[in-house]
Amino acid sequence: MRIETLLNKCLKFKCFVIRKVKFGKGSKSLVVKIVPRKNSSAICSKCNNKAPGYDKIGKRLFEFIPIWGFHVFFEYNMRRVKCSNCKIIAVEKVPWGNGKNHLTKYYTKFLADWAKEMAWKTVANKFHTSWQTVHRAVKSIVDYGLENRRIENVTALGIDEVQYHKGQNYMTLVYQIDKGCRRLLWVGKDRTKKTLRRFFADMWNIDRKFRKNIKVVCTDMWAAYLHVIKEKVPNAINVLDKFHIMQKMGKALDKVRAQEAKRLKKEGKEVILKSSRWCFLKRVFNLTKSQKGKLKELLSLNLNIVKAYILKEQFHKFWEYNSPTWAGKFLDNWCELVLEAELEPMTKVTEMLKKHRPLILNYFIAKKEFNSGIVEGLNRKVNLTVRKAFGFRSFDVMQTALYHQLGKLPEPQFHHDYW
After folding, report:
1. Which of 179, 173, 200, 189 is closest to 385 using CA atoms?
2. Per-residue pLDDT tens over the stretch 48-60
3. Is the torsion defined by CA of 6, 34, 114, 143 positive or negative?
4. What is the pLDDT of residues 44-103, one digit of tens each?
5. What 3-state class would DSSP assign to 81?
6. Residue 40 CB-half CA count within 13 A
7. What DSSP line would sit under 88-117, residue for residue?
């Protein structure tokens, strides 16, 4: 079987024929010559209509998927057409390429698929190309996906910020967290009101009914997000992030332990709380055998950290309620117990809980179907994407990579699957 026969079988170009395959310069590449079929009309690249030929502009090479270690190029003598519909002279449209891009659509998709599995640099080395070529391939697939995706069935959003560089460099991530579909919808630089407003503006340009369809929004307690959500989707249930609430409680517990350790050190009893940090921060079922023994020993002592730990463990029962009314009563009683304990870091936590009480109880109004675990799971994939590439210097490149990995975007389909 000849290579020409194999390529014709896989590609099936309408109005074009693969004439012959020859070695390129240095015999390190294969050049596939393509010619138009006799009596076939060229297609205008502007309006996709048939148009009479005008002239030819010379040969162009389009890079195809490598075969057996050889670089493969399509060679074609591009034609220009005189389009009566557009009233201009334009270059013809060819089925294997887009515009002035020297990569074929097939090679673009091939590189982008591998870029999901490996770091872009690794893909570039494996297929003897450059990092910039892989980036262009991924960006092309992402651009196609963003233009062709559908967002009319989005009813639940998850919004969070992720730090992507040292310092105050954050990006805002908006996910769809419906049961049937969980994906990245949008990535924006910074975590300001302006950033989140830009998300709603972008969605409005795609679907003007987008905001009306949103029923639930899951966020943390960042004031900028809460303000914009209330402004843009006032009828949606805003569920506060369970993970961040427990995180703040853990930080308060650690402060109490640090204060206690400082006091005991002055009294010459610093050994008591030595190596005890994770005994208090971990859940009981996650403790090691030695940590369980240490915790049991400490619980018999009358220490502030012990009081704070017991309060923290009691609060976990809050998430077990189903009724928002009973959950609210438990929350009020728990806050009273904390105030009686007179532990300053824990008191600040109660102030935060009281301030956001209605939003916290929305977790139960939404029937506990939406929580921070969904968003944090997606954030973990964001971190893995960034780490896999050893970081991205440009925000735009990182944005493209995240859409590619987590956006579940539609991709161009071809007659043959090449890997």
Report:
1. 173
2. 888 888 888 888 9
3. negative
4. 888 888 888 888 888 899 999 998 888 999 999 988 888 888 888 888 888 888 878 889
5. strand
6. 15
7. EEEEBP-TT--TT-SB-HHHHHHHHHHHHH
